[in-house]
Specification:
about 170 residues; alpha+beta; Jelly Rolls; six-stranded antiparallel sheet; five-stranded antiparallel sheet; 3 helices; RmlC_Cupin_sf; YML079W-like
Length: about 170
């Protein structure tokens, strides 16, 4: 059994709608009112939520998405590539490797970015934890459309990243 299969079993991970696998491990009992720019359903947010998140060879990519809340990521094992596209189109696409070899063991992605992740060639998996504050709610989450990808990076560059869109979002 591979280390990723063991992790899925031992941590109780299930398929994530973004791709990969996850398990929520904490949802703070303290709450705050939903910020004005967030969905008001529900009207409050937990202060924080925490998950394990894993990519492996069976589900090697996390599709482009955005969350309203900043997400702090903590690396545990393996390597991954993150792709960030500023939602306002003000900067170019940002790509970086996470893991022991790159030295990037902790990183934050704010709600100002579309985010995707994938395994580099030959990598078995990448296990991280994510802490979201204010806490994660699916009402504050959105998948990137092909139209949005093209608008932000142009037709040519969009071809390079289109494979990171969810199949439903790849259609125009």
């Amino acid at each position: 059994m591979s280390w990723t299969e063991k992790a899925i079993e031992q941590l109780g991970l299930i398929p994530h709608p973004e791709g990969g696998y996850f398990k929520e491990t904490d949802r703070a009992t303290s709450t705050i009112s939903a910020p004005a720019s967030y969905s008001q359903s529900p009207p409050t947010r937990n202060l924080t939520t925490t998950i394990f998140y894993l990519l492996d060879s069976r589900s090697p990519k996390g599709h482009f998405h955005t969350n309203k809340s900043p997400t702090t990521h903590f690396h545990h094992r393996g390597r991954g590539i993150y792709v960030l596209i500023p939602k306002d189109g003000s900067r170019d696409v940002i790509e970086y490797e996470v893991g022991q070899e790159s030295g990037r063991l902790q990183w934050i992605v704010t709600g100002e970015y579309w985010k995707a992740s994938y395994l580099p060639e030959g990598e078995e998996g990448c296990l991280i934890s994510e802490v979201v504050a204010p806490g994660f709610e699916f009402d504050d989450h959105e998948f990137m459309s092909k139209e949005e990808l093209v608008r932000l990076v142009g037709e040519e560059k969009a071809k390079k990243y289109e494979w990171l869109l969810r199949k439903e979002e790849q259609k125009e």
